[in-house]
Amino acid sequence: MPNVTSLRSAIAHWAQTEGLAWIYIFKAVLAALLTLWIAMRLDMPQPRTAMTTVFVVMQPQSGMVLAKSFYRFCGTIVGLVVMLVLISLFSQQPVLFITATSLWVGLCTAGAARNRNFRSYGFVLAGYTAALIGIPAAQHPDGAFLTALTRVSEVSLGILCAGAVSALVFPQHAGEQIKTTVRRRFSGFVDYVCRALSGRMDRPQIEATHAAFVADIVGFEAARSVAVFEHPETRLKSGRLARLNSEFMSASTRFHALHQLMNRLRANGSTITVAALEPYFHEVAPRLNKSGEPVMNAADAAHAAAQLAAFKAALPRRIRATRTELATQPDFALLEFDTASELLYRFVDDLLAYAETYASLAVPTHEREHWIARYVPRTNLLAASVAGVRTAIVMLALGAFWIATAWPSGGTMVLNAAAVCALASSSPRPTLMAFQMASGTLLAMLAGMIVVFGLYPRMDGFLLLSAALVPFLMLGSWLSTRRNLMGVGVGYCIFFCFLAGPDNLTHYDPTGFINDAIALVLSMLVSAIAFAVLLPTDAPWLRRLLVADLRREVVTGCRARLSGFAAGFGSRLATRFESRTRDLFSQISALTANRPDVQRDALQWLFSVLEVGHAVIDLREELAAFGSEIGDAPWRRSTATTLGAVARLFDKPDAKRFGAALGSTSHAIAQLQDRLDAERPPRDERHRLQRILSHLHFIRTALLDPQSPLDPFNIEKNDSRTAPPNLGVHHAA
């Protein structure tokens, strides 16, 4: 029996790993052969173009195929229109035509680098299709329109067949992945909260957990963007899924800020405040379970949300009672207690919103679906422009070589360079991707020579043709499922079809075959060299650029418009801030996959940006709630000065700006304490002023954190001039 059990376990594990890969291989080959058969039955001139399209758009999940196909079709139509315009203008002038085509492809590559997920693929295809259709058609402009329509028909056929096979044969849905991710992430976050509050996590574990959260957030948004193509129910819940992602970001940021503040209080010896608040922390985790068991679905999340709602409703009264009880103690720092308790309340509020949105997924429609904020990616415009300029330079150089040598396969070389540069630009390691594609193309050339000159002359009928192609197509599909060989697999699949894919009228031309193969490999090698030499993506300049963009999200938080409030969640600026910071860090992380020291530095900046940025946005929301009532009060001017000083510090950190930010924050805290002590404002106004004071104090503690990347700029940290104001002042009743 143990042997039978272990065998079943091994089979189940294989089915969930290698089994899924072999299902994908089977579907890809089936879709390619179906496309080839239909294209031949319809007497299309180049069925290999349709077959190539299958391997370009084929993905493991149906939603990915449909999304990629949709954007490929849109990009193809745009590229078709643009290329017809360019042919009509410059077909008699090769230099002008190549120049205009290079600029268009470069512009599309920059757009692909600027966008995310399969939307970027639409930009890639808008450029590549222009080259694919235009460069051959420009040599025979009288038939350009017919050639263009034929290519679009062949591409559309490949899209339709890939989508049909993916959706009907052993379908794998992104929606199922989303359900699994939602469940796993909620339980994982609960476990993280419990372990962090109990002190069972050290700094490296916390850093690794947050890095995993960032990857999960970006991946979840990518899955959500393709799942809407699969099923109407997923489209009905798309807004809630986007909201769930944003609320998870907010809750994780808030909890990290709370956890860091408590660590700072422990390090500063604030034992009274820590002891007073820890009982509340221990009450949070049990309310995230149902009957002691982890939350496993949306129905369980509804129970957890109800418990959290009751805890949140009673929390302000209980906090006030604790504060009143401890306020008489001479060593009790009210400002520290107020700051920590405010963060606790906001964390519980964010966690409740997260649980309620999770619970709302149990029903097809819900009022939480109507939400205006969305995940907003952030890409550096200069980095995207560099990708576009690099592609244009490669195409211009190869185009000049083609014109100068009149090489018959020069057009193939130029249009393939457009495709490789555009596709590899979206890869974290484009040089390696281009070299791998070149290796795959070399393998495809060898396999293609065997098929075209060894097997095709002996084939008679589509069944024998399919039998000859299957092993070669399966090899490429298998390579594309190996993570370390994905570029080789992509290059092999696409260019095996390009070189050896059968046409309705097959030409046995060894010279042309070898010329085309050399052109393909040469274009990839030139592209790889361009990626390695022309402002390479793994160079320090790009990392510094992205880290600077990450820091400047705090500047945006200090200066940008709040843009109204999303119902039940806060300002749109907060949601944009959360998503853009994570997106930037994910890009930095992808560029530094083999540099853990650099990743750690970037993570420290992420923590600092999230803590300070979230605090300044909360501060601005409280100030906005006052409206024009506060006028030009001294504390209001001091707060505005603090926001400006913090923005300047994160824009270009140095010791002088750090001192200015720290000094202005301390001055604003002192002035606001004086206002509370001297004037005794009404209850609601007093509570709002206390919250503003708490945000200012948290900003100050974040600036003084010895683990912050800003700590090296604190050259006066032992100077008495930077000593904190009297935190024990009783500033409010």
Automatic annotation (TrEMBL):
It is found in: Cell membrane. Keywords: Cell membrane, Membrane, Transmembrane, Transmembrane helix, Transport. Pfam families: FUSC (PF04632). This is Fusaric acid resistance protein. It is a multi-pass membrane protein. Residues 710-733 are annotated as: Disordered. GO terms for molecular function: transmembrane transporter activity. The keyword Cell membrane applies. The keyword Secreted does not apply. InterPro entries: PHBA_efflux_AaeB/fusaric-R. GO terms for cellular component: plasma membrane.
